[in-house]
Amino acid sequence: MPDENVKKRLAEEVAETAKAALKQLISKGNLPWPDVYSEEFWTVARNKNFSILPEEDEAYKEISIEALQDFAEKAEDLLGNVKDTVEKFLRETKEHVSDMQDSLKDLDKKDEENLFYEDIAKLILKNKTLEHKAQQTEKKIQEQAKTIENLRAKLRIDPLTNLFNRHALESDLRKELAKIKRYNYPLSLIMCDIDHFKEINDTYGHQVGDKILKKLSELWKQEIRETDSIYRYGGEEFLIIAPHTTKKEAINLAERLRNKVKKYKFVIKPPEFFVKLTVSFGVTDVKPGEELEEVLKRVDQALYSAKNSGRDKTVAL
User: Fold this and answer.
1) How far apart are CA 283 and CA 291, in angstroms?
2) Domain range enclosing 9
3) Is 236 among the residues known to form the active site?
4) How far is CA 168 from CA 2, 228, 233, 281, 287, in A?
5) Which of 62, 87, 236, 249 is catalytic?
6) What is the pLDDT of residues 104-141, one digit of tens each?
7) Is residue 200 a part of any domain in this protein?
8) What is the pTM of this model?
């Protein structure tokens, strides 16, 4: 059975595919009737090699409906609303066109000038009404697309620390690797781990451990640059993607973060009951053409060396 990361990845791909399919249909000037939309949805999924393809991904077949129930229900409701909105608009458009055709046919039968202008006035009014409904429909679709985008964004966030999660890390890092392959700018990774964190949980309980993780995340978000991104890699491990950063610059950043934590008092029970922590860092720079797996393996090895050689230090590979 796939783990939570696989489930989240599949859920994100459903949202991304749904949004892309709707956008492509609109750009082609087509309206998303159910059959047309369904075909476009799977076309997008195949073009992007998404793992949501049921006929190609065994893992997808094994996932129960319950595993993605929360997201699926929201996505179905949103896409259902889009379909209902468009279908209602189309019904009203067809009625309007039919009325126009009837009115134009009647014009041939009428001789009195005032009746002619009366029909023209009705047509103008119907056109204005239709234009207003078209604007409302467009606005509603935009709102629904924004809601889907918000749902997609939430799937990237770790709920405890409010940092990006591991799923977001893998997605973002792949994009950065593609960029440096093309533009050849420096890129570094920083992996960090809280030293002896298990002892904190065992001594004070997991609630205190969670509180420390939250505070540590806040501290590091304040310290990193706007161009950097920080992720909760798992447990008490974190990873920072630092674009346009050499290995030497990344080491300096890691040391600044390490010293910040070392000096900080993590208050457990105000005002005086606190604990102090140390953290270990692994640093590496990325070469153009490297794959995600080998880069993550090397920075993990750097972190392992830091912890294995005494902790509370930064090691670069």
Assistant:
1) 17
2) 4-154
3) yes
4) 17, 14, 10, 21, 21
5) 236
6) 555 455 544 455 556 555 655 666 666 666 667 667 76
7) yes
8) 0.57
